[in-house]
Design a protein that fits this description.
Shape: globular
Low-confidence stretches: 9-14
Number of domains: 1
Strand order of the largest sheet: 1-3-2
Largest sheet: 3 strands, antiparallel
Order of helices and strands: HEHHEEH
Number of strands: 3
Structural class: alpha+beta
CATH superfamily: Winged helix-like DNA-binding domain superfamily/Winged helix DNA-binding domain
Radius of gyration: 17 Å
Distance between the termini: 60 Å
Oligomer: single chain
Mean pLDDT: 84
Strand content: 5-15%
Length: 94
């Protein structure tokens, strides 16, 4: 018979793992932008992360709000690029 508290420990570990995965994704995205010579669209980030487009939109929005990314609009597409803050984090010259 399984102890009922065992499930709580497993849930806590799985919850932490998802937070770590989110952090890993954010770092990966910032690194992609910092090292890219050209701005990237949301579709490209979704492809590189292997996530849905909506997830990539949320990531880009959160990073913009935090000052890590900025964007420009090219016709109907937002093109995102790393701010100096993000480039400095990865040792890329601004």
């Amino acid at each position: 018979m399984k102890d009922e508290n065992d499930n709580k420990a497993v849930d806590w570990v799985e919850e932490k793992k998802s937070h770590i995965q989110i952090l890993d994704n954010m770092i990966f995205v910032l690194n992609q932008f910092a090292k890219s010579p050209e701005p990237l669209c949301t579709k490209e980030i979704a492809y590189r992360l292997e996530v849905r487009l909506r997830t990539a939109q949320r990531i880009n929005k959160a990073l913009c709000e935090a000052g890590w990314l900025d964007f420009k609009v090219n016709r109907t597409t937002k093109l995102y690029f790393a701010t100096d803050k993000a480039k400095q984090l990865f040792g890329v010259k601004a």
